[in-house]
Design goal:
Pfam families: 60KD_IMP (PF02096), YidC_periplas (PF14849)
Family: Belongs to the OXA1/ALB3/YidC family. Type 1 subfamily.
Main location: membrane
Membrane topology: Multi-pass membrane protein
Number of strands: 20
Number of helices: 15
Subunit structure: Interacts with the Sec translocase complex via SecD. Specifically interacts with transmembrane segments of nascent integral membrane proteins during membrane integration.
Helix content: 40-55%
Length: 597
């Protein structure tokens, strides 16, 4: 019993005593009635104590609230409700307590179990916005706001606006969220009106921790494609890497945006000007329902009572991200710099064009192969002719091997002399193939990151963005997996057949000849767990290559090539060595001399 309860009890007993002495005039009650009266007094006593306790407790809470929040104490009272900002693409649920984002649903997409795709939810994602004040740090999550939803029709489209307002006689705090129909960018404005001398800082301290949920079937592939990305105001793209270990970074330079990037989706925060004092981290938990845990802490400029920034909640479509802000398209991995140009400037636009006319992505992949092969057919033709020339001069090369086989340096010198006389280049067949390699490697990056293929079926593949599980194995094969991907198997078989066919056109022998058979088998192990769309592309590409070479063969006569070679031999019989050839021979001689020493 505390002091207030004891005082109340003493006063109540004194009132009963005075009343019984001066005002009670009736006869003495019988024992039964005395018991009833005693019971009534006893029952009234706790009720009075409870009223006193509640009153005093409420007074103490109000006192504590005022000591913590000062003139903002009234904002810390209220009842939590929900408010929704919604378009055809996004549904964002807010709490009126702090105007906090509780949940973000991407309405156009489903997770791999066909449930609504929640990019964020209140259990896995927490954000906080803190301001410095004369009473200390103020977390907006402690304040209650009144929501107001508005819709505005403009020339650029429909804009949805959700305004949260919290105010007292001393001032007003507003948080305004705007979302344009057809977009995934949520603009936020934070305003403080009046409250003179209450808020003392010149920045908002924002923190965000997100346990990225697994939206795809293949957790391993999702983790390979999920990381914290950020872009410096100076124009440099950076990331925390793909390691499963804890990765942290304290960024000294101003930052333009931060992205919690998943395989097919990104949740990001974008500065109107810049973010400072940025600290980032990511780690991989043991929980298989979580891809990665990502966090960011940063300072947002707060000047003249106002601050603004944006959120992006949406798919990783290259052209969509490119329109958000500078460098934001880097959240889609298009590959290394020497192949990324193929994806950025050719494949992305080709995909977008074909999507307008075809809804089946298997057909689109076939058409992309056809268009690329057709565009590269001049290089394919030159490569075939180069290999054909090497094939028709094989007797001369074999003769040199018999004559100089024991002297590699002399052999190389005589070979170069022969090539010069016959007008044949040993790299004429390889160089056109080398020029086609960026397209081959570009697809290795494009298909695993192409959201267009997500949950799109073709033939037996239910989802072209992940592996086609044609046969599920009762055991796991090291470096291969516990399933058989039929598209990968078809790609491997077609590549082996192509290698066999190609070996008939070249002069490759020994280890180089066998290497062509080993590589497809190696890729079978590597690509077995890669997207079915990638394996299907390589399979179709091999089939088209067969057709191209068969067609070229119909128009290429080895006898005519041999005749051309003989003409070059006569023409170049007295031809002087080129400067390059002379330097190369001198270098070979010097190397041989050093070897003998």
């Amino acid at each position: 019993m505390d002091r207030n309860q004891a005082t109340g009890l003493i006063l109540f007993a004194a009132v009963i005593l005075i009343y019984s002495i001066f005002f009670a005039s009736g006869p003495e009650l019988p024992p039964a009635e005395q018991e009833v009266a005693s019971t009534e007094v006893a029952s009234a006593l706790p009720e009075t104590q409870e009223i006193a306790a509640d009153s005093n407790s409420s007074a103490m809470v109000d006192s504590l609230r005022f000591s913590k929040f000062g003139v903002l104490a009234a904002l810390a009272q209220g009842e939590e409700q929900e408010a929704i900002l919604e378009t055809e693409e996004l549904k964002i649920t807010f709490s009126t307590k702090g105007a906090q984002i509780k949940q973000v649903e991407l309405k156009e997409f489903k997770d791999w179990q066909m449930n609504p795709l929640l990019l964020l939810d209140e259990k896995s994602s927490q954000m906080s916005l803190v301001l410095d004040s004369r009473m200390g740090e103020m977390n907006l999550a402690d304040f209650y706001f009144q929501p107001k939803l508005e819709k505005e029709e403009t020339e650029e489209g429909t804009i949805h606006r959700l305004t949260f307002t919290a105010g007292t006689e001393s001032g007003t705090i507003k948080q305004i969220f705007t979302l344009k129909e057809g977009e995934y960018l949520v603009n936020k404005t934070f305003e403080v009106q009046n409250f003179q001398g209450v808020f003392t800082g010149n920045s908002l301290n924002f923190s965000w921790e997100d346990q990225v949920k697994a939206h795809e079937k293949d957790l391993a592939e999702s983790r390979r494609k999920s990381q914290v990305n950020y872009y410096l105001s100076s124009g440099s793209y950076e990331n925390l890497g793909l390691s499963d270990d804890l990765e942290e970074a304290s960024v000294a330079e101003p930052v333009k945006w931060i992205g919690f990037s998943q395989r097919f989706f990104t949740a990001g925060i974008i500065a109107d000007s810049e973010f400072r004092a940025v600290n980032l981290s990511q780690s991989t938990p043991a929980d298989s329902s979580v891809v990665r845990t990502m966090s960011a802490a940063l300072a947002i400029p707060f000047e003249n009572g106002k601050s603004s920034f944006s959120f992006y909640f949406g798919p990783d479509k290259y052209k969509t991200l490119k329109q958000v802000t500078e460098g934001f398209e880097e959240n889609v991995d298009m590959g290394y710099f020497f192949v990324s140009w193929v994806n950025k400037y050719i494949v992305v636009h080709l995909f977008e064009f074909l999507e307008k006319y075809f809804s089946n992505y298997g057909i689109i992949i076939i058409l992309i192969v056809f268009i690329i092969k057709l565009a590269l057919s001049p290089l394919t033709y030159k490569s075939y002719i180069g290999m054909a020339k090497m094939r028709v001069i094989k007797p001369e090369i074999d003769e040199l091997k018999e004559k100089y086989g024991e002297d590699p340096t002399k052999m190389q010198q005589e070979q170069m002399k022969l090539f010069s006389q016959l007008g044949v280049s040993p790299i004429s067949g390889c160089l056109p193939l080398l020029l086609q390699m960026p397209f081959l490697f570009a697809m290795f990056f494009f298909f695993p990151n192409a959201i267009e293929l997500r949950q799109e079926s073709f033939l037996w593949a239910k989802d072209l963005s992940t592996y086609d599980e044609f046969i599920k194995l009762p055991f796991t094969i090291p470096f291969y997996g516990a399933h058989v991907s039929l598209f990968t198997l078809l790609m491997t078989v077609s590549q082996i057949i192509y290698t066999h066919f190609n070996n008939q056109l070249t002069t490759a022998t020994g280890p180089m000849k066998n290497l062509g058979y080993i590589m497809p088998v190696m890729f079978m192990f590597i690509l077995n767990s890669y997207p079915a769309g990638l394996s299907f592309y390589y399979f179709v590409s091999n089939v088209f290559t067969f057709g191209q070479q068969a067609l070229i063969k119909l128009f290429v006569d080895d006898a005519k090539i041999r005749e051309k070679v003989e003409q070059n031999k006569v023409k170049n019989v007295n031809k002087k060595k080129s400067k390059f050839q002379q330097r190369l021979e001198d270098a070979m001689k010097a190397a041989e001399a050093n070897k003998k020493k």
